[in-house]
Design goal:
With 195 residues, the chain is an alpha+beta fold. The chain is 14% helix and 34% strand.
């Protein structure tokens, strides 16, 4: 995973340094959407910085042409201005009760050519449909944070009938060590717990 992270960031950072002002990668990976699979529900990406002070962005670069057929990204325009703050691994189900309403009425689809890239605020509400083609849809994703920002990771637990959020200070090593979207937080500092 470290080799993949280093390879991706080594290729992308010289170009991103010309576009993004003083950012560093916290996540870099490949995203593979197999045929007849890969629907990602309406969601926001995890909050990986203090979004009241900073903006993290995802850089998404498909390695094949991406269309509605093979599952391009679709966005709710302007949603990054209203839904900022605490988000963790549960974030892909925040909109489950209005999922279909958003899909039917509020999405802008963005076809992208192979090798092009989009940069999106991680708080923007977005969606990606199932891959209806016969080919794998492969893309590269980087999540970038301001160089001076502390990386964050939120976890959630129930305690005495209440949902508690735990906020940890992390770096790219935490995300590199994740398995099935879970990581070992034992060596990272707990910054805050709150309802």
């Amino acid at each position: 995973r470290r080799k993949i992270f280093d390879k991706i960031t080594g290729l992308f950072l010289p170009k991103l340094d010309k576009i993004l002002d003083n950012n560093k990668p916290i996540i870099a990976n490949y995203v593979c959407k197999e045929p007849a699979k890969g629907m990602v529900p309406v969601h926001q990406n995890w909050a990986v910085v203090d979004e009241m002070k900073y903006t993290s962005v995802s850089v998404w670069c498909p390695l094949v042409d991406v269309t509605e057929e093979n599952g391009t990204h679709a966005f709710v325009d302007g949603s990054d201005k209203y839904f900022r703050g605490t988000r963790g691994s549960y974030a892909n189900r925040n909109f489950k009760d209005v999922d279909q309403l958003i899909i039917d009425n509020y999405l802008t689809y963005l076809p992208i050519k192979a090798g092009e890239a989009i940069i999106l605020d991680d708080s923007v509400i977005h969606y990606s449909s199932i891959n209806k083609s016969n080919s794998i849809r492969l893309a590269i994703q980087l999540i970038m944070i301001p160089a001076e920002a502390q990386g964050y990771h939120y976890t959630f637990r129930e305690e005495n009938g209440k949902m508690i959020a735990d906020l940890y200070a992390v770096d790219e090593s935490y995300y590199l060590g994740m398995v099935n979207w879970k990581g070992d937080l034992s060596k990272y500092k707990l910054l805050q717990s709150f309802e």
